[in-house]
Fold:
Amino acid sequence: MTHTERKRRSTRNSRMVTPPTIRRMQEIMQNEMVREFLAEFTSTFVMMVFGLGAVAHMVLGDKMGSYLGVNLGFGFGVTMGMHLAGNISGAHMNAALTFTSCALGRMAWKKFPVYVLGQFLGSFLAAATIYLLFYTSIIQYSEGKLAVTGPTATANIFATYLPDHMSLWRGFLDEVIVTGMLQLCLSAITDKGNNPPLQGTQAIVTGILVVIIGVSMGMNSGYAINPSRDLPPRFFTYVAGWGIQVFRAKDWWWVPVVAPPLGAYLGAIIYAVFIGSSTPREPQILENTASYEDRRTPVLPATMPQLPVTSSLTPISVSPDNRPSVQAAPPLRDSIHLEHL
Structure:
């Protein structure tokens, strides 16, 4: 072996060795909760960047944005978030939905802080990203003064604020009802035993649902319907220069945190009682019935007549008097090679 070949092989082997730090990081990234945390972080970030960016166009742009654009931004932001994280964490992107999943026993409570932390950090980073992208427009529009209320208010780019015609408790009721409608429809979308959307279309259908909620019920309180959508960006505006007024304006800040989980829980209960309990379900398999993997043969419905196993595949032999006779067929599972299943 020449010196060049030895050097080339040595270089190839050194490339294949994974440093301990990278190997440790790979092990951490394979942890289920870490993956779910990152999935919620990334999906919430994407949803919020599209949504808040649409709001910035409506507030700052003179004919560059619209209320419909805001609904489309959040709706299709949800769609993209579901494509990013749907098969990893379920792409909640909403602390109210995570709370409901835990309260109904669909998810362990130990995952609740992991999901919510990922959502909050993703939402906070999205607010910072939008602030960076639109900084000059914000300063020009507000004439250098970051206001929470008034004709040059820009805090509403990042969080929801009650309009003058709404009282605090009417806004609370509005958030409960709107979030309940969201959860009620999501329960139908995700219920495989009812009438779910076609495979692969769940994300787009959910995005359309968010758009419909916005255009039909979003006027009163800005349809926060999500603590993860409202509180982290509000906190960002507090530290970015808008000041404590973001929490004092009509004492509204706590409503998008408390009302959506209550509304989501009620919506899920209503679906479970009114719809879920009356939806036909698959018959349960008896405990002493072999599984599909054990049997390797399909289970025929009870109404289907059982055909005899003897068929053209049954072995035929010739007796000494030259008359064919039918031999007993071997068991079906022994006559089929597993690699053909």
About this structure: Confidence is low (pLDDT under 50) at residues 286-318, 328-341. DSSP finds 13 helices and two strands in the chain.
